[in-house]
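debug: dumping io for the single-chain case to check the tokenizer round-trip. Nothing else runs in this session.
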Amino acid sequence: MRTLRSIRGRPALGVEAAVLAGWSALLIAALAPAGSAASGSAFSQGPLWICTLGISHAAGGGHVVAGQGAGSASLLAAAPMWTLMSGAMMLPAAMPAVRHVNVNSLYWRRRRATLEFVLSFLALWTLFSLLVLYPLSERVPTGSATVIAALLLAAAWQLTPYKWRALRACHRASPLPSRGWPASLATARFGIRNGSACLASCWAIMAVVAILGPSALLVMVAATAVVYLERLNLRPRWASRRVSALLAAAAFGVAAANLLG
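debug: decoded output
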């Protein structure tokens, strides 16, 4: 009974469970052998293999595959995995905002308010991923020079006032009405506002993940940890400078490995 009470007392438990399920799905996809039912066309198309769904349909005997000229069908097919990746990587850092929504919502509508926040937050990230990161992963060459340039760009972004301002905005709360459509609209607006700050803060790191492609799973884990720890730090400039140093060190590490290899 005490355990059940403690579980009920964690209003963000559902989101935490969803994040865990998302990482489990990504791990299963990463470990699935090529050509298996778990991987197959679902995870083997495109440089960012873990975030691209294959799509096929029989239209006059035709076969369309995501990442190979499918156009809007390709984006639609890729959306589920990009949403999964965005949720797994970005929702951990948004947990303080999720708790804010829960604490400031009436008990009977906490689950609904949480869902409204998460959906609006993920919708923004999914749109950015499909329109920017997905094309980036398919069109940018994945050589060491590109990776080094992306890491150095991310390191430089960490030192800009725009980055610090975005990171501070991630900590801003928002007043939420207690009930009715005003409450739903305010919660969705807060999700978009928090997601926008998160996107402005983390876009460069996510670009690195997109460019790295098939080897990105461990990088995704590392990037998630960096974003989470940076978001929890109450001194944005201090945290950003240290992440910048870490990214610059990674760039020099890639360059050294390339020279020695």
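debug: round-trip ok. The radius of gyration is 20 Å.
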